[in-house]
Amino acid sequence: MGDERDIREQLSAGLPDEAFVTDGLLTKRVLRAHALAMLAPTAGERLWDLGAGTGSIGIEWCRLHPTNLAVAVERNPERVSRILTNAGNLGVADQLAVVTADASDALDHLPEPDAVFVGGGLDTALLRRCWERLPSGGRLVAHSVTADSDAVLLEAFTRWAGELNRVAVEVGEPLGRFTGFRPLRTVTTWAATKS
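The chain above was modelled as a monomer; its predicted structure follows.
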């Protein structure tokens, strides 16, 4: 990036991807900022980050206010270790609880959420259970990168309304002596607030 300032001082969502230790399973910066905008956090709220991968959504949620809390649920123990490392590196270890489990197995044991982000393990039953657990005014945001999961989000949009978007991002990179754009995987996003 060429910017030498401490990323821990950044006040907005959308930390550089390099701020996270990852195995590649990371919600990219632009999509992370979009998801957090759709989650619309306010002070003192709790987020469930389901299928947390690197933990970037939950970590950035916590960074937005010192009273925000998050529960990151991830079934892969190596990724759980990375989430803990990232939370410590980015100063939110005390705000982020990490649960090693499949999201569908963990839901009944989690404290009430104000918002839910589903980044992995998306299916109709999981979304329905998340929706049922949300209080009035709670927000649910989910991302999909497969046709199968897109169908789940279309069904959710039909049932609960909200916003359904496809986000395509292209990144500039060298192409011979020129610069060209390489597309990243297109992501379908669904966001809704429970009335």
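The beta strands are 46-50, 69-74, 96-100, 115-118, 139-144, 163-167, 170-175, 178-183, 187-193.
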